[in-house]
Every structure is written in C-alpha cells, then in structure tokens.
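Q: Got a minute? One more chain.
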Amino acid sequence: MKKIIAFIITSLSLLPNVLAEEIIWSDKKLEDYKVVEEEKRYKFYKEEKEGEYIKKGEEDKRYTNIDENNTKISDKVEYTDTCSNDSSVLEEYQEVYPYLVIPKAKSLSFQISNKDLNIAKLDIYDKEEKISYEIDKCSNCSGLNIKANSYIKFIFDEEHLVGDLKIVLTTVDNAEVSFYIYFNDKNDYLIKNGSINTKNKEYKVKDYNYSISNFKDINYSLEKPELSHSIYPLDKTKKCIRRDIMTYRYNIVKNYYSEEYYAYIDDTSYIKDEEDYKIYYKYIIEDPKDLEEIKSQIENTDTKLLNNKIEEHNITPVDTGYKKNINSKDTIKIIIVIISFITLAVLPLLIKTIYKRKFSQKMSM
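A: Always. Here it is, folded:
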C-alpha cells in the first residue's frame, strides 16, 4: 500500500512539469536549444502616391513621376492685356471690373494759410469711437497755437479706414483750414486740400474726394464691386484672364501595415515586402528553469520573443512574453498520468471487493 501511495505522489508531481511546457518563437537562434520549425515573416505595405500639383511644363526634381492625365486649374488668376497662346495656361478674353484698394489712414495734417490758428480742442473718431493721436511735426507753433503759413501733423495710434474717420475741430477764432490725410510715411495722401471752416466744427472725411492717383495697384474682379471705405471701383475693361494648368507630380512610397513581421495578413490590398523579412525559430522548452536563461539571451541581444507563430489569416501579432501551451504530446502524457492515478486509486478497492466475495462464498458452503 505504501508503494502505491508513493507512486501516486510521484505521478502527481510530474503533472505540473507537463503543463509547464513552453512553445516559443524568436527571431534569433538560441544556443543549446533545438529548433523544431522555421518560419519566414514579412512586412506588408501599400504602394501609394505622394506629391502635389505643379504648373505644367515646370521642372521639379523632387518628384520622379508626372501624371499628365491628373490635372487641375490654378485658383490664382492673372490679368494681362493680351493672351499668349501658351499651352500650359488656360486663357481667354473677358470683360472685367478694375478697382483700387483704399489704403488705411495713418496721419493727418493741417495747413494754415495767412492767419494764425489757435486750436482749442481736436477730437478724431473712428465711427463713434474716439482714437488716440500725438503731434508728429509742427513747423511754427507753440502747442496747438499754429502761426500763419505753417502746418501741424498728427499721427494716429493705429491705422484706420479713412471713410470711417470724423474730425471735430474747435478753434478760438473762426478760420478756413486745409487738411491732408496720409496712408504712409512718404506723405502719400488719401485726401488733399480738404477744407474745414471752424464754424461748423464737425467733418466726415467720407464726404471728400479721394486722391486716387496715389493708389498704385489696380485689382480686377469678374463681378462688379461696390464702392466702400476700402474699395474704389474703376470703369469696366477687357483683359486676358490666365490660369495655370497644373499637373500632378509624385513619388511612389511604401506605407507599411505595421512595424511588425507577419506570415500572412487578411487585407489583400497590402503587398508582401519580399526584401524585408525575418526568420523566426520555434522552440519547445520543457524545463521551466530554462526560461530564465532564454529571457537573458533575448534581453541581452535585444531580440523579440513571441509565444506562437502568426497563424494563417491572423493579422494580429502574438503578445510578447511567455504562455503555457499544451500540444498533442502533452495531452497523451496527461491522459497516461490521469489513468494511472485512477487505476491506482481504484485497484485496492477492487481487490478488497473480490476478496470479500470469495470469502462470503466459502463461508456459505
């Protein structure tokens, strides 16, 4: 009986060793361990175009390919007096509306004629909001007392739409004063020789004519613009409207599904990169103590250790680490242990039962 119990204990002690068997995959050959299988794993990618639209006919060495059928018309419009019949440009004659952009006002000056001017108060408004200013120059004055045949210039705290300005001037004596409003530091003016009679005090700048000869740049529109404090329309005219034809320039790049390596993936739109692969090796580790040594090898060589191979059509990489696996060989071992355990446990009872039966039959005789 003692031998039976010892055998059962020994059999049970073998069971954890069977369950602890490991199947691991590594992209490094591990010393002193038998490789039971090899598998080639690849990176997968899509070929995609990366580029931009560039004017037709222009060279750009950043790109190796041109898609002549993939074109678009530039949003930028150029207006010229004549068309050039350039094949890289879409152009046509059309009636357009020229206009000037009215610059913002930066400063104001008063020109004094043959009578001294004594300013009691000067307020300047942008719409209904009072703006700040300071005296920039004064040719012959003391404070706001300006001598005849001289001038005084004020600089605004910031630029303002000239049509929104309102000047409120109060003087000790009634006088006629000319004023200029400038839009830069070169004394290019928006309004010249505006006249103020100090009896009236309040003057809206929009009531005066702009000096459009000082506005340099002419702009064009296909729709008629409205006169405003920032736009000054001119007479309609005919121009050649030009838009660049753009062709798509591009390079072919590889966009990878993942940085991991796979035997297969489900997404058939990706291409296997035959030049970027690793060989993975399968090991069966029966002694759990060996796992520590394997971990040391993997860690020291910076090699990734994976549990099981990527099964066909499985696009998810196996988690890094260790996992207990039971293969067919393990299953047979476990069944043998269990049968042995059951047999050894039941056998004494069976023998005892048979013995009792025989004893009873003998006594009855």
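A: Residues 15-19, 307-327 have pLDDT under 50 and may be disordered.
Q: Perfect, thanks.
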